[in-house]
Structure formats: C-alpha cells, structure tokens
TrEMBL record, chains A, B:
SUPFAM superfamilies: Nudix. It comes from the Bacteria. The keyword Cell inner membrane does not apply. The keyword Hydrolase applies. This is NUDIX hydrolase.
Amino acid sequence: MKFCSHCGHTVAFEIPMGDDRPRHLCHDCGAIHYVNPRVIVGVVPYLGDQILLCKRAIEPRLGLWTLPAGFMENGESSEEGALRECWEEALARVRTDDLYCVYDIPHINQVYLIYRGELTDTDFGPGPESLEVELFHEDEIPWDDMAFPIMTETIQHYFADRKEGIFKLHRGVIERKL
Amino acid sequence: MKFCSHCGHTVAFEIPMGDDRPRHLCHDCGAIHYVNPRVIVGVVPYLGDQILLCKRAIEPRLGLWTLPAGFMENGESSEEGALRECWEEALARVRTDDLYCVYDIPHINQVYLIYRGELTDTDFGPGPESLEVELFHEDEIPWDDMAFPIMTETIQHYFADRKEGIFKLHRGVIERKL
C-alpha cells in the first residue's frame, strides 16, 4: 500500500498513537488502513462413502485437487459462502450438516471455516475455476496431487471420523514449513 | 474507497471481467481491491462460577459491558488473538479450553471466534480500552447494560452449558434487527 484510498496522498507505515504495531496511515486525512486476516470458506461435499474434489483450473496449484473453497465475501454468512463456493467451483449443491474444521494459517493471514455437506444429487460439473470435478472413494483420493495440505488434513479427518461414526469439530494451526 | 492504494489513481466500482459482483478496481494499474469480512476474536474468561467482563472505555457502546474481544491481526492465530485481546482489555491471562462460539454477522461483515478460557489468577484490571474489569456470578451479570447481543448470547450459553456440565460449540448467524 502506497497511497491513501480515501484521499490519494502517500501513506506512511508507522505505529499510530495508542497502537502497538505499524499500520499504513495517512498524515493528510488521518485515515488508518487496517489489514486483517481473510476467511476462506469451504465444504466437504460427500455422497455415500465418496467425497467430491475439484481439479484447479487456476493458479496457485493449477492442475491439483482440492475441496471447493474460496474467500468469504462481505454480506454473506460463512455457511452461505461455503455453499456459494461449492456451486461456483463444482456446480454442486449440498445440504450442510455442521461446521467441521476451523484452521488458522497465521503466516499467510488466513482462517479456514470448512463445513460438511451431503450432495443433494449427482448433477455437478466443473465451474470456471475447475478443470474436472469428481467423486472419490477413500482409496481413490489423489493424495500425491492435492493442492493444499489443509485440505488433505480435512479429508483425512473426514474418512477417519466416518469410520468412527462420529464427526467432531477439528481445529488447528498450520505453521510455516521450516 | 476513492483512490487506488497501489498507484494513487481514482478507482472505479464495477464488476471485473469474470467476476460476479462489483469491486473497487483501478483502470490505470489494473489492481482489484477486494474487501472481505473481518474476524473478531474473543474469550469467555472464567474462574470458578464467575466470568470476567469489561466495561468499555471507547465507542461504540462506551460504558457498557462486554467480553474481551477485538479484531484479529495479521500474523496471529485466532486463539493467540483471543489471548492478546484478553490481555489488552482486561490485563488478564487465561488458559484456553477450546473454541466455544462461531458467529456470523453478515450485515456488518464480521465473523466471531470466541474461546473459553480459565483465568490463571485474579491479577487483572482495566486496559486502555476498558473503564472497569470485574468478575460476575450469573445473577450479577449486568444484562441490561451489555454492549453487544452476540456477547449476551455467548454468556447465556456459557452458564446454561455449565449447569449441564457439557460445553459444546455454539454456532449462529446474527441477522439485522428489522
């Protein structure tokens, strides 16, 4: 950030009075520009003992597989956002059961809220951000071609919980790989 | 938002190619400025059968009571953020038990992640954003002087769950009052 989005003046990056960390602030109009973590909402769409995955048509990780998920938008609830992403990426509709995973990824300033939801039918297909959309049994999951570790972990939890017969909320912090 | 924070040019507010909703975008440098929901992190600090509340020293709702909570910052996990807010607002330290409430407030673009945590000692007091910090038994809670409905609901859940002896995750969407 170089310019104030309110008045167009150059911004400084310094600690505002009464604060404890540097922010982009405008000495001309006084605006302080806070930058906060973003929420990614997603869903584990399942049907029987299969789950739905999308092969990414966009960067990052083009060509690799993931659960339908994306940035939460203003004006929607996290569950509405998860359903929207499932529709946009997989043209699929689900009935959500419950919030399933809450993950923090502090080094990239992201919070993940992932729901579990049963597909209402098998009428799905790739949206503009997907190359393919497919149902997978556990032993068919393309583990070596998964786009994001957080989604791999979510899917592992899903199949483990399914075997146990109890779906519990999973929570975790994904640290930067050293 | 009137000016591009990257290049200082005036921004337009229109639907970018391939998108489905208007964004602030710069026709000069091509930047699209996304605005997403913000996460508020907080904690229910308890000790025995009491909980800790803060009387707000700042607007909005100056002079009313709330749980320690505030905007999650970049670079921290939601749990770290909740502990930080508890320290900043109540000079109190807690050992967090678990994530307790996840609320969406779509009309103000906020997601709340509220933890439960036992105070490690009674060495607390008002931080710069609080006028008073006090422990309350259930029958002493200033219900009529609470700052935010979401915090009132969280506290009601807390005491109800405490009676039942089981703390479960609570989830909800707070709609705009009509």
